[in-house]
Amino acid sequence: MIIEIGKKEIRDAFRNKLFLSILAMLLVLTVVSIILGSYQVKIAMDNYNSSISFLQSLGKAELPPMPNLNPISASKGFVNYIGMVGALMAIVLGNTAISKEHKNGTLRLILSRGVFRDTFLNGKLLGNLAILAGITALTGIITFVSLIAIGGVALTTSDIVRLLLFFGMTFLYMTFFTVLSMGIATVSTKGSRALLITVIVWLVLSFVFPQIGDTMDMDNQIPGGFFSSMGMSRDQEHQVLQQFKFYETLRDGVEEMSPTKHYERISYALLNVKPGFEANTPWEVVGLKWINLIGLLAPSAAIWLLTYIAFLRRENIYQSN
Amino acid sequence: MNGIMTLARKEVKTAFRDNIFLIIIGLFVLLSVISVYIGSSTKNAELQAYQDILHLLKSQGATSLPSPPAIYPLSVLSNIVSYVSMIGAVVAIFLGFESFSGERNNGTLKLIAARPVYRDQIVTGKLLGGGMVIGVLLGIILIFNLALFVLVSGMTPGINEIIRLLSFFLIAFIYMMGFYAATMYVSIKTNDSAFGFMLMMIIWLTISFVLPQLAESQRTFAYALNATAQTVTQVSSDTVASKMTELFSPAAQFQNIGKDLLQMIPETSNIGLGEVLLKQIGAIIEILIPGLAVLLLSYKAAQKEEVL
Amino acid sequence: MLRTENLGKKYGDFTAVDNLNLEVKEGSIFGFLGHNGAGKTTTISMLTTLILPISGNANIGGYDVVKDNLKVRNLIGYLPENVTLYGDLTAVENLRFFGKLSGVKDVDASIENILKLLEFTEWKNRKVKTYSKGMRQRIGIAQAILHNPKILFLDEPTSGLDPQGTKELRDILLLLNQERGTTIFMNTHLLSEVTKLCTDIGIISKGRLLLADSIKNIEKEFPEEKSLEEIYFKIEGAKR
Amino acid sequence: MKSFKKSILLLSLLAIMLVSSVSTVFAAEVSAPEFSTGCNLSSGENKALSLFIQNADVAPHSYTLTAGDSANSYELYFSTNVATVKSMTVPAGTGNQVDLNITLNGNASVNEDKLTVKAVRDDGKENIVNLSIIINKDYALSVKSMLDKINVLSGKSADFTFSVMNNGSQDLNNIKIKPELPYKWFASQGTEAIMNLKPGETGTTTMKIDVPNSQIAGNFTAKFTAVSDEIGSSLISVPVTVKTSSNIGYWMIGILILIAGFTLVQFKRHGRR
Prior knowledge:
Radius of gyration of chain D: 27 Å
Radius of gyration of chain A: 23 Å
Number of domains of chain A: 1
Helix content of chain A: over 70%
Number of helices of chain A: 13
Distance between the termini of chain A: 27 Å
Strand order of the largest sheet of chain D: 1-3-8-5-6
Number of helices of chain D: 2
Oligomer: heterotetramer
Strand content of chain A: under 5%
Order of helices and strands of chain D: HEEEEEEEEEEEEEEEEEEEH
Helix content of chain D: 10-25%
Shape of chain D: elongated
Number of domains of chain D: 2
Largest sheet of chain D: 5 strands, mixed
Largest interface: A-B, 61 and 50 residues
């Protein structure tokens, strides 16, 4: 039963123009960012190697570390695009999954056929997750192929595991927005309103919260950094920061509420975009960043359970607008 | 003219009755207030730190004291630039995405068209109505910000600052109206308001984030290259590639103007308003042109029969 | 009051209205009959200046619907099918908006009058989205007659209404016709509607006018048919 | 980008400090191999020597710089301001300054060393300057962290213990540990602790470092030097792994379990439908 509903979801999605156009855009962006990234990796690699040999020829022993030149950081741009376009696509997918049934009145037809409501929801989720998984896999393949073909780099096992884990996170991130969107569409009676609300929630989670976090970082307020522009000593810096302790706590709390931030943090760590994780094995990175993994998983699960309850208890789900 | 005003007033009224729209407005105002508050606190801390340093030096008997940090009052408000370019655009989209398709679904578009008003007047009325809402919104933010600015930082803005601030809000208005006009055009063309909305969201994402991101990645790339070789050659921060990419993004242009107007860049902080505007004339035109183009297209599209 | 000559409209290859010749006398209630897709709504849209005919012409109260569209719009009231109005505005606000668009001088007084006439004063300050279908239809009528039009166009006015609502609507229309002398032009596919309300009818099928006359004349013309329903099916059947 | 800028700033400060403390040597058009005084160098110490390249020719020339022929092993590189250079172009009739940066690697085998600096002009002309380098064995200070690696939770503090050794032949006074910490980290205790060490003596000191609440999990390095009145030690890096305090994670899991329980109750009470 679940499988049948899931299959129908997949068929439906590939007839949804909006979904298809966003998907196309996402794929184009993936290709562009990966190709650009691969080229940058290639050029930067060449450049680094020549500058290293130059420094060695000078007898300099302390060589500069490779600054973000690891091959897998080519996916960095991809993190941002998934954060925006991928989330939007997931929202469209989840919203249409529910709202089209309302609109066409097919919800009555399905639920009068001996399908439990939870089975119905599970089938929908399964179908949509399958689509997301397919998209993730596709972008993953594009990344691998272009890294090897264009970047011309040999990936180590660790690199491959890191990339695979990163695509896993991407899947989880998109899943969150699909679940959120399905949840809101289930609770709301009007499909287009539900879409609006979901988009607002997305805006708040993905842009507003991180932006507040940035704004609340004092050092971000002045180009070049506040403390260094004032020539402040570390003691003074600490004193000033002590005064803003409440800020700092608030700022953390705000950022912790954003799945986008969690996704970004764990992805940057996995992709070595942020320095400090080069020496760790992929699994150690996940271990260090487990909070972010939970931050991606727990909200999805919680929203899904709440959706169950809402759907189970509702009597007016058949209304068409 | 009367008809246009009636239409415009109705737009304003329905906008402020819509709960979701009110939430967004609330968010917008709240964010700008928070940002000013933080900006002001930072400036205060900065001044405080300067006083501390002075005190320390005097106690050590130093005779040459450092000059006070160059504080440009308006840079306190600088976070507004990113909020307007981000949420401001979304507000404009929310305002406009049902302007025609919604009325079409209600059947009210037919009712209006059967009254003694011309179709272009309907478009003008809606544009005016949207303009009034956006104007009111920016006005609220302006007042809030000014009040908070004076309250928290204790500085009083001079004539020069006020003129700069006003011209920034004027450009913000033009920027948001551009988005509103584009959304209205999409709304005229499509029946499915959800589709139109998502389409505009994608366009917004592209010009506000994707393109600047591409430009940025080109820029940091050029920088990373130099850092590796440990040769700090003076690279102009704009590479050709990044400049080209930004050309397609009114959002980036808007931010550039905003940074100049709100004294975020020391070099342009003290030059006259006219000079700033002259320097950014290309950017201003770039913000203006797409909006005007879609507006004309809207007038044309509204004449068609299928519009109803 | 209303006259069309060879009025025609095509959408691509599809002929929606084909050489329509109609005349509606002042003070009559004209029922425009036809099944779904016959061209009723297209006709009403041309008459209310919403779309342009590709051939022929039509005039209302002596004004051409294409050349003098603004003058025509002043003469007519129009209620399309399934209008929900502005849900977030109250009845009064909706009416004030449409009244002002029609250039009504003392809007508030006219609204007061209309609402009294329609016995709606009780709910006038509630948001329209809280109304039932019947109430909404009444406000729909109110906006259409607010500016005291000479002729009122109604597109399937009773669709979706319950019998009670249908009867109320009928009473309102009769009242309007008798007290203000408003000419009424209404599209419908419900025969029962026509018999109870109309003085004249036109029957349209596939864009062609099959018959247009007063009910009295039609009954004379078809003596052996007992009801309008039979007459309708006979004409429909004969042309098919 | 910010850290990059910061490090540039730091480097330039360092350069200015070094330049002001060192004598200047001229590399003129003279090809004669003469000795110039170089510098006093302690082990682990960075010094920069300013050299001038004078182009007396009527055409601009590019000079390729090399340094070598020394008994001890040094880390050497040339720089202008803070950028590393291997060659430089000097306009006709003018001179350009270039800094030679020297650090002693390991222990010195000879105490009086020489260094040959060669500037090869693009037309093949060679200028050679011989610098004398005197290794100062009186003062030598080294610092070691007792732990190779430190783990700490964000929002908590960690103790760093160091052993400081006087390897020289003179007393060292007022030895302090100077930290270089990541952004927003702060040494709350131990910065003021002072040690005096006799030659060959080893002392230990502890420093408490607060890691801010806002620090997200990851690997960082904290850098330290020991500084006495007489001399500074070389910089040591201690890797620090920050783990996020688990509270937020447990909260999230707790709420999830709560919701799951609630869902279960709902299903039990109302059944599936």
